[in-house]
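Colleagues,

For the teaching module next term, I've prepared a clean inverse folding example: a structure given as tokens, and then the sequence designed for it. I'd like students to try predicting residues themselves before seeing the answer, so please don't circulate the second half yet.
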């Protein structure tokens, strides 16, 4: 059973960088054909895909967030991370990490609330 756990600060000030890490257990982030993704859900809105990193370490980003987003990994810790720069209150959301397998998001973390506020 693959398990994912998000971690990081719950409060970020405007203009700062949001940094989150997803720790994966029960599976490897370098498993062929896998990819590892970040999704968020702002209050009262739908899910928004932010980007992913595949098993080869190649990232792909949502065009709307590409200029502010970076996804990278630490294979020694079986973790992948998200950085979102220049945050505003509109970046307040529950942030999720998930595994992508055969184009399905099949395993999810429980989500972590991030609030952008001064």
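(Answer key — instructors only)
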């Amino acid at each position: 059973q693959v398990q994912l756990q998000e971690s990081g600060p719950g409060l970020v000030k405007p203009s700062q960088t949001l940094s989150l890490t997803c720790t994966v257990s029960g599976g490897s982030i370098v498993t062929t054909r896998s990819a590892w993704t970040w999704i968020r859900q702002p209050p009262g809105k739908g899910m928004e895909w932010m980007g992913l990193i595949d098993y080869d370490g190649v990232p792909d980003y949502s065009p709307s967030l590409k200029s502010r987003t970076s996804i990278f990994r630490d294979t020694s810790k079986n973790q992948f991370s998200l950085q979102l720069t220049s945050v505003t209150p509109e970046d307040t959301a529950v942030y999720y990490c998930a595994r992508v397998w055969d184009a399905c998001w099949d395993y999810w973390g429980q989500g972590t609330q991030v609030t952008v506020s001064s």
